[in-house]
């Protein structure tokens, strides 16, 4: 209302002094105070910056679009010379044109800001994932999904989903394609006498997807998983790697879905975590060798 009343003043010649810079700026401060109050100076300055940013973006969009749709005749008809030889330009923008373009520019500006905010929020949930099975290491970028509660119903082991394409070189031929088609239980049943070094690491995890009934997900039991997120590292050995035959992200921003249980508790700074991870991996390798030796002796 205050802003609209100020526009009416332009029809009163005696009040032309109100259209100076200081009056305009002071009026904007009053409008912001009426709309948002004065909680703190920092908050007030943030509102002020947003106010002028939106207004300048809208005004610039209106003028830019106006020039875009003008032809050369309309453009040069607005240029005229003064008696002193100066060059001036007269800008004529229609009322309805300005109104329609204003809303278009504001909505476009809001859409860009919303997309940018979503991208920034998603980046805070992205982390580097490394998985070890024996001497094999698979790394990718993972997205922390706080709503993911997928776990093995028997052991309550959390399941971290990864694209099966990352493991294609280590899986039997054709498994990646068959996982995309579904029914992973048939892969295990048809494994038979085919040699697969990680056969004893295979698991079937039941789950219920969105808008679909119960199904099974093929999973691997790794030796260790390391997650780097927010400057901290989380190492876990109690985890299953679920293999998804499709693509988890259309823009390839991430290729794994991190279970929230894997980042619970206090993380370790990267330097210390790296040392702890190497020691734990070495211990797991030694334990595997010992178990293998005991099995051979018992045999």
Automatic annotation (TrEMBL):
Positions of the UniProt region annotated as Disordered: 278-299
Signal sequence, renumbered to the chain: none
Comp. bias regions, Polar residues: 280-290
Active site: 145
Keyword field: Aspartyl protease, Cell membrane, Hydrolase, Membrane, Protease, Sporulation, Transmembrane, Transmembrane helix
Subcellular compartments: Cell membrane
Membrane-spanning segments: 17-38, 50-69, 93-112
InterPro entries xrefs: SpoIIGA
Location, primary (coarse class): membrane
GO biological process, any: proteolysis
GO CC annotation: plasma membrane
EC numbers: 3.4.23.-
Subunit structure: Self-associates. Interacts with SigE. Interacts with SpoIIR.
Family membership: Belongs to the peptidase U4 family.
Name the UniProt record assigns to this protein: Sporulation sigma-E factor-processing peptidase
Naturally occurring in which organism (per UniProt): Paenibacillus vortex V453
Organism lineage string: Bacteria, Bacillati, Bacillota, Bacilli, Bacillales
């Amino acid at each position: 209302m205050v802003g609209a009343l100020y526009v009416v003043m332009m029809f009163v010649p005696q009040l032309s002094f109100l259209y100076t810079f200081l009056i305009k700026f002071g009026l904007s401060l009053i409008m912001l105070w009426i709309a948002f109050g004065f909680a703190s100076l920092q908050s007030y300055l943030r509102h002020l910056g947003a106010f002028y940013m939106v207004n300048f973006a809208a005004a610039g969009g209106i003028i830019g679009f106006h020039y875009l749709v003008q032809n050369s005749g309309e453009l040069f008809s607005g240029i005229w010379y003064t008696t002193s030889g100066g060059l001036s330009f007269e800008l004529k923008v229609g009322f309805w044109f300005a109104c329609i373009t204003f809303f278009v520019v504001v909505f476009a500006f809001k859409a860009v800001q919303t997309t940018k905010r979503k991208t920034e929020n998603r980046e805070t949930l992205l982390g580097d994932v490394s998985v070890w099975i024996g001497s094999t290491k698979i790394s990718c970028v993972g997205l922390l999904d706080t709503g993911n509660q997928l776990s093995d119903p028997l052991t309550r082991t959390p399941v971290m989903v990864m694209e099966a394409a990352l493991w294609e070189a280590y899986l039997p031929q054709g498994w990646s394609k068959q996982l995309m088609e579904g029914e992973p239980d048939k892969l295990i049943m048809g494994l038979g006498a085919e040699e697969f070094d990680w056969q004893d690491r295979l698991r079937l995890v039941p789950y219920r997807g969105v808008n679909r009934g119960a199904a099974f997900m093929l999973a691997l039991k790794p030796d260790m998983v390391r997650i780097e997120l927010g400057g901290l590292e989380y190492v876990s050995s109690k985890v299953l790697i679920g293999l998804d035959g499709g693509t988890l992200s259309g823009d390839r921003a991430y290729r794994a879905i991190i279970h929230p249980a894997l980042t619970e508790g206090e993380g370790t700074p990267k330097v210390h975590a790296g040392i702890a991870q190497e020691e734990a991996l070495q211990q797991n390798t030694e334990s595997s060798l010992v178990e293998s030796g005991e099995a051979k002796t018992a045999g």
